[in-house]
Design a protein that fits this description.
This protein is α+β, with helices and mostly antiparallel strands and 309 residues long. It has 2 domains: 238 residues, 3-Layer(bab) Sandwich (Hsp33 domain), CATH 3.55.30; 43 residues, Alpha-Beta Complex (CBS domain Like). The strands form 3 sheets. Strands 1, 2, 8, 9, 10 and 11 form a 6-stranded antiparallel sheet that branches. Strand 1 and strand 2 form a beta hairpin. The longest helix has 18 residues. The chain is globular and about 70 Å long. The N and C termini lie far apart (53 Å).
Length: 309
């Protein structure tokens, strides 16, 4: 089994748990290396892409899954999307001066106040579904937990990691990203282990409901996963899952290969420019040409003003 650029669905059937494991190597390195991002910004983008791939591969149709943040922090926007089957991309908008002024910033320092939105796009003939959760003091993973709790009401635990790694015999560090998620599915006729909120409870006294023992075991085992295990290219995905859940038996399903994509093209950019009024295009001319650079893949497209009419 390859160790990178795939999503592995799995299940721990005795515990009533399903999950997904993401390992990204060349794909995330390609996405990140196309930009001149500070490492802390690259890490945010890499985590967002890994999380998007993990959640997007759960779609049961050929659509698009988009994760986007919008905040008042130094990193004002992150966008990552997954297009079935298995295509991902990601980008960030940030204030370089504000980022570089921070010493050892946390995700909260970089993101500030704002929200995280997750959008399911099933195509032009279907209505979009979007869930929005505040970031507050949360990391991207924390916000995803809130999303699942509020929108799907499925007990969910996930971990995300990203960073540059050196491999033996290589003098250049390459970016890697990983993520793992488990969800508890109550047995047929059973109830979800998420405590229900009651309007009759006194203020400040949430009802106490015991969590399902199987779910507690599954999430506590997931919490033992360390970042280096998600990123280590020498540790296969099957070995990592076996480390975690061999006691109860883990069923691994066929992997979903992941690749980088971008929707930009010279024809699409030219069509966009032609939609601008001539006076607006004239303002875009620099050194005798109009240049547009894709925010996702950094591909430059250069046009002479005369070619646009």
């Amino acid at each position: 089994m390859p160790t990178t650029d795939h999503v592995i669905p799995f299940a721990i059937k005795p515990l009533g748990v399903r999950g997904r494991l993401v390992r990204l190597g060349a794909v995330i390195d390609d996405i990140v290396s196309r930009h001149d991002y500070p490492d802390v910004v690259s890490a945010l983008v890499a985590e967002a892409v890994a999380m998007t791939a993990m959640l997007g591969t759960a779609l049961k149709f050929n659509g698009k899954f988009i994760v986007q943040t919008k905040t008042d922090g130094p990193v004002s926007m992150i966008v990552a999307d997954y297009v079935a089957p298995g295509q991902v991309r990601g980008m960030a908008k940030f204030d370089r001066a504000r980022v570089e002024a921070l010493a050892n910033p946390t995700q909260k320092d970089l993101l500030g106040e704002g929200y995280l939105a997750m959008t399911v796009d099933q195509g032009p003939d279907m209505e979009r579904y979007q869930g929005i959760v505040p970031l507050g003091d949360n990391t991207l993973a924390d916000a995803a937990h809130t999303y699942f709790l509020q929108s799907e009401q499925i007990p969910t635990r996930l971990k995300v990691a990203a960073g540059p790694m050196m491999t033996r015999g290589d003098k250049t560090a390459h970016w890697r990203a990983g993520a793992i998620l488990v969800q508890h599915l109550p047995s047929e006729g059973g109830s979800s282990p998420i405590p229900e909120q009651s309007g009759d409870a006194p203020e400040g006294h949430a009802p106490q409901v015991e969590e399902d023992d199987n779910w507690v075991k599954a999430r506590l085992l997931l919490d033992t996963v360390e970042d280096h295990e998600l990123l280590d290219p020498s540790l296969t995905s099957s070995d990592l899952l076996y480390r975690l859940y061999h006691e109860d038996g883990v069923t691994v399903y066929p992997e979903i290969a992941v690749s980088r994509h971008c929707t930009c093209s010279r024809g699409a950019v030219e069509a966009m420019l032609r939609n601008f009024p001539p006076e607006d295009r004239a303002d875009m001319v620099k050194d005798g040409a109009i240049e547009v650079v894709c925010e996702f893949c950094s591909t430059p497209y250069r046009f002479s003003p005369a070619s646009l009419g």
